[in-house]
Design goal:
Elements: E1 8-12, E2 17-18, E3 21-22, H1 24-36, E4 41-44, H2 56-70, E5 76-79, H3 85-97, E6 102-106, H4 115-127, E7 133-137, H5 139-142, H6 148-154, E8 160-165, H7 170-179, E9 184-187, H8 193-198, E10 203-206, H9 213-224, H10 228-237, H11 239-244, H12 252-260, H13 277-289
Parallel strand pairs: 1-4, 1-10, 4-5, 5-6, 6-7, 7-8, 8-9, 9-10
Antiparallel strand pairs: 2-3
Length: 294
Amino acid sequence: MKNTVFRGVGTALVTPMNEKGVDYDAMARLLDFQLTGGVDALIVCATTGEAPTLTDEEHIKAIRFAVERVHGRVPVIAGTGSNYTDHAVEMSVKAWKAGADGLLCVTPYYNKCTQKGLVQSFYAIADATDLPMIVYSVPSRTGVKILPDTCVELAKHPNIVGIKEATGDMATVVEIRSKAPDFAVWSGNDDIAVPLMSVGGQGCISVFSNIMPREAHEMCALALRGDFAAAAQLQCRYKALMDALFMEVNPIPVKAALAAMGIIENRLRLPLTPMEDEHREKLLTLMRKEGLKV
């Protein structure tokens, strides 16, 4: 049986920043907030963590900091994907040495490849460490979708344990579950986490849980226990707020939200810019409705 790293909600953590670089004091506050909220895993330096704007040194230092702060309480999964496979291999080995419990590797972007290229690239990364690896399909960002038949091939590698499925296409999820039933699937979209778990998904890699970790954990825990009626109530309740976190490109809104909560500074790296005032007010209104102090 493969080690699937975690079940439940894994927070796709933002990378707090200040004028000097990565803000480790804020990162400590955010990590502690997540752990107190009961999340099941933490995903560091991936899309929500603005990984493409981090230097390699910052990237690995942030992973190491998270590993040390979390101290084994939940798995720390490192984002190490790249459009250049050799670089992804290098970063994966460094993350492994930094103490990460698993890897999250996005499909190559910009220089888009075939499905054969995906398999060969992911195999090369998976061969480089002993860590369980989750592949990440998000064609809205990369232009490449991991097809269900490709999941069948990826599942043959002992270190490739599953997929973060962020196409938003439930038919694709069902086909993956049908063709590769032992290949774990996590929702990459907060707004369909419960439907995805209803067909055997392992949980959600969540942006929403940055601001409401306890509620995200409860929603996923209910679904994984088979109480889909109660889980669906939470899914529907938080749908508007989940959507608001994507009114602008992620992680612009979630950083605005966390800043309003006093956890981090509202600082991003170009080409990302702070949230537009009109959108920010809509987001804060929804947060206040859910009892968040902003």
